[in-house]
């Protein structure tokens, strides 16, 4: 049973970029970069992207995706 | 009892000889660690470094909490009582805590029962299980409506999925860390608490309730007796828990100042051991010890239930289960906190103190002590 597929909880939770002032990468404790298109939070120094699932950032180390190459042009 | 122990050891050695090391890690661990257990598949998925020393299977714990999100009812008396006791400590503090981190365990109860205590304006709730976090979302929104009715500032709720062992919060970002029964499944407890201290602003409050070593002692005994009887060996069925004496050390080791620890014991009565296990499951408190035996035979389980009833059962047919909760309070260090003076900074010798203190005859007339302040009240 996939956790997100079977869930019938309230929807409409949107990610608020204001949260970024509190949260950091759990591994490096460095600030995260929000990518609106892919709905991911990038930890640039180690090249890991954490997903935002329906507005909730998933910052457990195991849910992170290793990004092959980080394009510096994307960073704000 | 003695022959049982010998039988158990015999079974262990025989098993080891027949099957050899049970897991790929065995070459580095002593063989007695592996009696009647297999390393779980979930732990092997763990790719972050060498987590061989872990006691708990965090992947399994995540799954158990996912399931608990579906199993849990609306009101759990045990969790409500513990959370109420924990939050009561917030009212004892004179200052307010605008930003709070709510860490694991019964975090949805904390959100629901906060009722404006501690002046919390922003609540960051974090749990390892995504389903658990989502389950608490409706609560969070309804909570806001209630607060609006009561003419309080609505609490801004932020939800996160994260691991307590890898706290994704920036340095000095929150005023208070609240954890209601959320820290007893953490492998590296001193590390997790140090991370909490780093996440706290100076003079921030760390407030945690944690299950202590006396918890479920009846079940522990019943399982051991039943396993020895039916399987001739034991495997850990109840997780190792922190002792009361460890709690103070943990707070100090995490660098938290002014530590306070107190203990409460709750006895919950159930019709039978099966209801107890159902309750534990609904709280997500299933066995997640990595060295556990993944197979529990029906026969052994029923034997454990029978042993439980015969050893601890009451006349009215119910069985008691003990839950020992350790409440820990600590403050992140700040310069304005009270602290002992530096060693050697005293200006008055204890010897001189003797002359100032009232002697036996002058005790009758305290106002005549030379050098002391005149006592205005008496």
Fold topology:
The complex is a heterodimer of chains A (76) and B (378).
Chain A lengths: L32 E3 L4 E4 L4 E6 L2 E2 L7 E2 L10
Antiparallel strand pairs in A: 1-2, 2-3, 3-4, 3-5
Chain B lengths: L1 H18 L21 H5 L12 H14 L5 H15 L7 E7 L1 H7 L8 E6 L2 H20 L6 E6 L12 E7 L8 H11 E12 L5 H15 L12 H10 L3 E14 L2 H10 L15 H15 L6 E13 L18 H7 L22
Parallel strand pairs in B: 1-2, 1-4, 2-3, 4-5
Antiparallel strand pairs in B: 5-7, 6-7
What does this structure look like?
- The complex is a heterodimer of chains A (76) and B (378).
- With 76 residues, chain A is mostly beta strands.
- Chain A has a domain at 17-68: N-terminal domain of TfIIb (Single Sheet).
- Chain A contains no helices and five strands.
- In chain A, strands 1, 2, 3, 4 and 5 form a five-stranded antiparallel beta sheet that branches.
- In chain A, strand 2 and strand 3 (48-53) form a beta hairpin.
- Chain B has 378 residues and is α/β, with parallel strands linked by helices.
- Helices cover 39% and strands 17% of the residues of chain B.
- Chain B has helices at residues 2-19, 41-45, 58-71, 77-91, 107-113, 130-149, 189-199, 217-231, 244-253, 273-282, 298-312, 350-356, and strands at residues 99-105, 122-127, 156-161, 174-180, 200-211, 257-270, 319-331.
- In chain B, strand 2 (122-127), helix 6 (130-149) and strand 3 form a beta-alpha-beta unit.
- Chain B starts with a helix and ends in a 22-residue tail after the last helix.
- Residues 1-49 and 372-378 of chain B have low confidence and may be disordered.
- Chain A binds chain B through residues 3-4, 7, 9-10, 13, 16, 19, 21-27, 29, 31, 53-54, 56-63, and chain B through 45-48, 59, 62, 66, 99, 124, 128, 130-131, 133-135, 137-138, 141, 158-163, 166-171, 173-174.
- Chain B: It comes from Riccia sorocarpa.
- Chain B: This is Methyltransferase type 11 domain-containing protein.
- Chain B: One of its GO terms (molecular function) is methyltransferase activity.
- Chain B: Keywords: Methyltransferase, Transferase.
- Chain B: Pfam families: Methyltransf_11.
């Amino acid at each position: 049973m996939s956790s997100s597929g079977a869930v019938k909880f309230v929807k409409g939770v949107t990610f608020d970029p204001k949260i970024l002032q509190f949260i950091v990468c759990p591994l490096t404790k460095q600030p995260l970069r929000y990518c609106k298109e892919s709905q991911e939070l990038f930890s640039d120094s180690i090249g890991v992207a954490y997903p935002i699932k329906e507005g909730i950032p998933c910052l457990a180390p195991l849910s992170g995706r290793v990004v092959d190459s980080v394009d510096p042009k994307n960073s704000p | 009892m003695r022959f049982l122990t010998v039988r158990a050891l015999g079974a262990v050695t025989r098993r080891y000889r027949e099957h050899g090391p049970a897991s790929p890690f065995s070459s580095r661990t002593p063989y007695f660690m592996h009696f009647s257990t297999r390393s779980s598949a979930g732990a092997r998925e763990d790719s972050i470094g060498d987590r061989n020393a872990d006691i708990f299977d965090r992947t399994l714990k995540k799954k158990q909490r996912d399931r608990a999100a579906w199993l849990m009812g609306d009101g759990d008396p045990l969790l409500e009582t513990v959370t109420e006791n924990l939050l009561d400590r917030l009212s004892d503090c004179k200052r307010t805590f605008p930003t709070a981190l709510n860490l694991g365990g019964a975090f949805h109860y904390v959100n629901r029962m906060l009722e404006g205590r501690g002046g919390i304006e922003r609540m960051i709730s974090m749990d390892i299980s995504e389903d658990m976090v989502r389950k608490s979302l409706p609560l969070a929104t309804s909570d806001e409506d209630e607060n609006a009715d009561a003419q309080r500032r609505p609490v801004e709720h932020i939800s996160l999925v994260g691991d307590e062992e890898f706290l994704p919060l920036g340095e000095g970002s929150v005023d208070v860390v609240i954890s209601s029964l959320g820290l007893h499944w953490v492998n590296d407890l001193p590390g997790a608490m140090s991370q909490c201290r780093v996440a706290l602003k100076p003079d921030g409050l760390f407030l945690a309730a944690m299950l202590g070593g006396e918890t479920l002692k009846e079940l522990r005994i019943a399982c051991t007796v039943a396993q020895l009887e039916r399987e001739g060996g034991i495997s850990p069925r109840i997780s190792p828990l922190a002792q009361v004496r460890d709690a103070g050390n943990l707070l100090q080791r995490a660098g938290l100042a002014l530590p306070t620890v107190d203990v409460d014991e709750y006895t919950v009565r159930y019709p039978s051991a099966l209801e107890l296990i159902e309750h534990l499951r609904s709280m997500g408190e299933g066995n997640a010890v990595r060295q556990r035996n993944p197979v529990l035979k029906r026969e052994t389980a029923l034997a454990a239930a029978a042993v439980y009833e015969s050893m601890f059962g009451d006349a009215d047919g119910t069985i008691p289960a003990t839950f020992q909760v350790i409440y820990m309070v600590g403050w992140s260090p700040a310069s304005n906190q009270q602290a002992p003076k530096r060693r050697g900074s005293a200006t008055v010798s204890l010897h001189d103190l003797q002359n100032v203190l009232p002697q036996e005859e002058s005790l009758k007339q305290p106002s005549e002590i030379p050098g002391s302040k005149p006592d205005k009240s008496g």
